[in-house]
Amino acid sequence: MTTTTQPTAAGSSDEGPRLQTSGLYSRQLPPYFPPALLAICAAVVSGAFFLLGSFHPVPVAVGTALVYLVAITASSAVVENGRRAKDRLVTGVVYCCFAIAIVPLISLLSTVVVYGIERFDLYFLSVSMNGVIPSMDAGGVYHAIVGTLVITGLATVISVPIGLMTAVYIVEYGRGRLKQAITFFVDVMTGIPSIVAGLFVVALWILVFGPGQTNGMAGAIALSVLMIPVVVRSSEEMLRLVPNELREAAFALGVPKWLTIVKVVLPTAVAGLTTGIILALARVIGETAPLILTAGMASTRINANPLEGDMMSLPVFIYKAVRDMGLSGEAGVYAEERAWAAALTLILVVMLLFLTARLVSRFFSPKKG
């Protein structure tokens, strides 16, 4: 039996017959339809609220989202099919949840920037409040920046080695009841209120140095109590993500276990470990209650020595400025301006920390290929 081939037309492809489009994808909404439908829904809902005389962005946004979800699902069910309609409905719900999560963050950041930029300048960042009374339009936040960097830096120096070594023990060496006990106490410490950590350090400080001894070191220890469990948990999860094949390959070459951890496990997880440490630092850099109890809130001078008296920090500075907002006259206005500017400074410090973490993760993580 012989087979014959049909000649191909001039200019046609020799790759064989082209597959026909499946019926599942033959009828689709055009790509521009969802954004166009969203714009139409927003215009209709906004017009309805405007005619009713109760226009407000929040109910308009909620109404637009609901109308859009119903419209896109019905349109997809009519033009496409039930599976695509369900997919578009779930996709719309996911986008709505994302908007619900991101809108408060954008609102918070924009509010802090709008109100804080009025006093945020080089002068505000380079002078302290030493010798400045509340009614004076002067003073800055430099002493609080120095105190924040010193206290959080010491807390990081204390917390990172302890937390990282604890995580290494849990993942690499831990067995039996001791491992269970450590994991249990780490979970308990994660939920400790910050004020309890401050009271614990105050009691410890009174026993060792006597009453009334507040300084930056006490504040760093209080923050480290809150920071250690976060470092342990994040480091533990990152170490568990390292493939066991890497450990087994090192063991097969005769490398000791401790050297495998130092040369293989930790470098492989360095990106995640750095991110976890920065998250722990960001968790404690805004704490106010433990620092009021341990580092004090009366300092207005530049103090870089953690063992020499009270040390101001940015969260405590903001708290003190907000408390002074109740003063009459221009003193309250100046206090409000300082509070917003200090809040903007704290946000920028946290953003700088996250940027540093990203750079460290990028340059020190193992290269692929």
From TrEMBL:
Its main location: membrane. It is found in: Cell membrane. The chain crosses the membrane at residues 32-52, 58-80, 92-117, 144-170, 182-208, 214-232, 264-285, 339-360. Signal peptide: none annotated. Keywords: Cell membrane, Membrane, Phosphate transport, Transmembrane, Transmembrane helix, Transport. Residues 145-357 form the ABC transmembrane type-1 domain. It is a multi-pass membrane protein. It holds the Pfam family BPD_transp_1. InterPro entries: MetI-like (IPR000515), MetI-like_sf (IPR035906), Phosphate_PstA (IPR005672), Phosphate_transprt_permease (IPR051408). Part of the binding-protein-dependent transport system for phosphate; probably responsible for the translocation of the substrate across the membrane. NCBIfam families: 3a0107s02c (TIGR00974). Belongs to the binding-protein-dependent transport system permease family. CysTW subfamily. This is Phosphate transport system permease protein PstA.
